[in-house]
Task: structure prediction
Amino acid sequence: MAFIKNAWYVASWTHDLKDEPLPQTILNEKIVLWRGEDGVVRAAEDVCPHRFLPLSKGRIAGNDIQCGYHGLIFNGNGECVRAPTQLIRPDCRIREYPVFETMGMVWIWMGDTAIADISEIYDLPQYHQTEWGVAFGDALDVEANYLLLCDNLCDPTHVNYVHPSTLGNPEGINAPVTHESTSWGVVTERLTVDSAPTGFVAAFGGHNGRVDMWQRYLMYLPSVSIIDFGATAAGTGNWQEGGDARIQVYSCHFMTPVTETRTIDRWLHVRNFEPDDQAVGENISEQFRIAFAEDKEILEAVQKEETVHEGRLKIGLDLDASAGLFRLKINRLLKGETPNQSAK
Result:
């Protein structure tokens, strides 16, 4: 299958880049990342053009990277700057990739470098605000196509069946789901008013009485999902503002396709309560790990069966509308990319 190349994807957590080169596979392309002595992250294709040894098998040399076989050194622009065994450098270069660090992650541009624009990288304002607490999760390795994960993150209805003990709400099974198209993707919403709190809301919001809850799934092209969910005491506020005992969390998912059937979902969350208490953040992460493991089991099973039933038509349900719209937008982007635009 084709991937959208002219886009920013998360290549790694910032803290994963230490004193050794880091190999990654993104959109079926083997890439090496490294942090130079100057603190700047660089990325290039993970191959030495001499004997094709992966450069990730080598070492960091100042701000450059050195092949571990015969010592050729390449800079962040992909140029061979030194060949230790000869005076004249070989006339060769490797592909380099634009990278940028923000929100504790290293982002990489996979397409035409001439149109890479860091202003297009997703940024959550609350991540940078001191009154909000931030906790980093994991890099969830899912043996499934990234669009299956995107489908899942356009779909609040699955929560009651896949996550009944943490995020599900039996009283909200028939709550209406709406969606709308945006310039950057699709928003899917489910508002559950005057309801018993979910296990999560009761545990972290201290709600024992009736609440108004919201789930807002913001799916950004091509593969970033921000789930805005929370609750207030019933009748006192809404998802936009206000409310007694307001609890609000942004669950952020940055999905990077590795191959057609493997995706890395790096996730973190931002909360509006007890921002300085790391234990609260870790407790939330543990709840999310339970839920995301449930998602992983479902999605990997679906991927296996899609292979078995390749060519068989699926039935459609009303709840598929937002995911279907998102896939339509993905297909339009793919058609809009020419070979010259998507790889330079």
Remarks:
- The chain has a mean pLDDT of 92.
- The chain has two domains: 8-118, 124-336.
